[in-house]
UniProtKB/TrEMBL annotation:
TM region(s), chain numbering: 37-60
Annotated protein name in UniProt: Transposase
Listed GO MF terms: DNA binding; transposase activity
Keyword set, alphabetical order: Membrane, Transmembrane, Transmembrane helix
Annotated ranges, domain Transposase IS110-like N-terminal: 6-143
Membrane found in the keyword field: yes
One matching Pfam family: Transposase_20
Amino acid sequence: MTIKTLGIDLAKNVFELCGLDESGDIQLRRRVRRDTLLLAVAEIPACVIGIEACTGAFYWQRQFEALGHDVRVIAPQHVKPFGRRQKNDRNDAEAIAIAVIQPRMRFVPKKSVAQQDVQTLHRARRRMVNHRTALVSQMRGILLDRGIAFGQSITRARSMIPRIIEDRSNELTDLCRETLSSLLELMSEIDKRVREFDRRIDRVYRESEACRRVGKIRGVGPKTATAVVAAIGDGRDFDNGRHMAAWLGLVPRQHSSGDRTILMGISKRGDQHLRTLLVHGARAVVRTAVGKTDRFSQWVNELRERRGTNRAIVAVANKNARIIWALLAKNEEYRPAI
């Protein structure tokens, strides 16, 4: 029995293995528990192992590679077409093994422990920001229920809510004022935590040479630079910058047939957080390009006038994604257009 490809359906406690030979025939089916998984994989000669991208996938990738195997992580949506019959662990492991041997299969970029640490930092900050947004929305709802309204903005909420609480001419009760004061204190505590995460991200940015190179691009700051480097590493998992932009969902969706080509809005595939950071940075570039005469700003202004602001923003985000790939994959310094 010679196993060339091994598909492993990852889980918390029970793992399903499916081994294929060189011709694609099934030679191994085995169900193991978590504490015996590495022992079972160590008994198999070096081969290609396929696993789905999920919680713990990169940990197991490092463990299997330490045993001499070639490990490839596949996005779940690329495995689904190869699933047959009913969905269970046995069929899932078989689908993963079949998917990993496909000649045009795309794999998820590998992540080191350091990259996962930076991603954890970004996720924790994003959790705090989401809590803060929900908290402001709740306070706005409470006040709107009392007939008091103000615009949507965290900055405006910070200035308006304390004044509304102190204003004794409105119809807020003492209990409502106490409740809003407690929520406002909680928002201040969240602001403190967000600033703490920002300082940690800035420290990571300063200590990383790759992040500093990426951060020289217009519209890319410490948060975007650290998030991108943590997600793609050196960028060499992509053939070119266009593929990376497509992976980030910054290209049009296509619904074409025959001679009829239909391009729609952006696909929005891939990492939503990375795409959001790039788009926010591009929005700042488009906003500040007005009145500037350098070649890049002229291109941005002409594009905005010809295609509109939103399309110009996405185009700048797409261009920045391609530039980031070139800097990381080719280990080059950023050279701005003159």
